[in-house]
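Input structure tokens:
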């Protein structure tokens, strides 16, 4: 539902307690009072990174301090490499030093990397302490901050060590998007396109109609974009919180190839953003869907055209790394009983998790995106 003053609230119906996602400008100022409604503990720890901390750390600490919290803040290096067990160990030390007990909350202030890491640490410190997400990127706003997946990376692959752990609430201050780099802003749009492809044809058309405004960073479009994404994610998570029925796995559309591309690009001199890799991964998944006889060529090209119109890559300069891409895909979490599973598109607005994917279909997908 929409809130007052143009603000929006979406409830995520997960056990044992549903939680709200709050969307709108200026919400960071309300972090302290809203958290005080949730917990009575005297202390809290804020986790941020070197990009976000200098911009919004003091604002968050001021709000928390005014609400009576004794605050500590840890600022980590920005980038996916931070999502590691070494960083988790650093946070455990900070939690011990700050005397964070089972009633004391951990607050994430940043994008998906910070949120995943802080959530994992909150889930595992003292077997679980209260956790709040304050997301500051498009990618986190539309996807990573909602749903309770927390994780760190391992040498064998992305997000291999993690837990399902829901926050007390998610706070999305859309004002923070104004300081994103153009590249980070556009990368976040990939997850929004993904949600439209797997679940909502009308939302896909909404993207097509507004892509020029989105490219121009018309922030007045963002509350609606974020709300519609959160509603899709919340609906899926409520029905399949822990990926037991296969429904939540649909959110991995584009990620099997995308994660492999992201890992391979990280070895070069120009690491890709997560959303950039997912964008190319979606194009590959569409090609695999066409080869499987599920998706029409017309709709596959329509999806690729929207990805490209959003300023996102539809190919990756990794033709030399094809064998590594295949190895990374086969080490992916979505491998079950030795079989690589893919989320394939049936049409715009509908997708299916498939366990029977022929090698020649996968090769067709890689042919489409590896250049």
């Amino acid at each position: 539902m929409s809130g007052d003053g143009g603000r929006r609230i979406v409830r995520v119906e997960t056990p044992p307690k549903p939680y709200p996602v709050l969307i709108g400008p200026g919400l960071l100022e309300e972090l302290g009072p809203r958290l005080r409604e949730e917990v009575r503990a005297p202390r809290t720890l804020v986790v941020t990174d070197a990009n976000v901390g200098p911009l919004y750390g003091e604002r968050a600490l001021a709000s928390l301090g005014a609400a009576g919290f004794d605050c500590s803040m840890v600022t980590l290096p920005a980038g996916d490499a931070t999502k590691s067990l070494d960083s988790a160990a650093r946070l455990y030390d900070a939690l011990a030093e700050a005397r964070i007990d089972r009633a004391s909350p951990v607050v994430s202030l940043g994008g998906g990397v910070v949120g995943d890491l802080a959530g994992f640490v909150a889930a595992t410190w003292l077997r679980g302490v209260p956790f709040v997400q304050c997301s500051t990127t498009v990618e986190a706003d539309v996807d990573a901050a909602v749903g309770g997946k927390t994780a760190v990376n391992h040498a064998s692959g992305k997000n291999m060590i993690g837990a399902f752990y829901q926050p007390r609430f998610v706070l999305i201050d859309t004002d923070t998007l104004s300081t994103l780099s153009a590249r980070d802003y556009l990368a976040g749009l990939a997850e929004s396109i993904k949600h439209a492809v797997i679940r909502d044809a009308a939302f896909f058309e909404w993207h097509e109609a507004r892509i020029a405004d989105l490219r121009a960073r018309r922030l007045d479009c963002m509350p609606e974009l974020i709300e519609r994404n959160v509603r899709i994610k919340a609906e899926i998570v409520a029905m399949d919180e822990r990926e037991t029925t296969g429904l939540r796995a649909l959110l991995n559309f584009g990620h099997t190839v995308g994660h492999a591309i992201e890992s391979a690009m990280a070895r070069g001199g120009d690491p890709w953003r997560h959303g950039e890799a997912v964008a190319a991964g979606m194009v590959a998944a569409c090609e695999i869907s066409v080869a499987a006889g599920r998706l029409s060529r017309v709709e596959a090209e329509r999806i690729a055209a929207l990805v490209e119109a959003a300023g996102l890559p539809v190919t990756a300069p990794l033709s030399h790394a094809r064998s590594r891409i295949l190895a990374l895909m086969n080490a992916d979490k979505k491998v079950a009983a030795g079989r690589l599973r893919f989320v394939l598109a049936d049409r715009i607005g509908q997708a299916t998790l498939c366990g029977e994917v022929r090698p020649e279909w996968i090769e067709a997908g890689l042919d489409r995106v590896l250049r």
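The mean pLDDT is 95. The longest strand covers residues 157-164.
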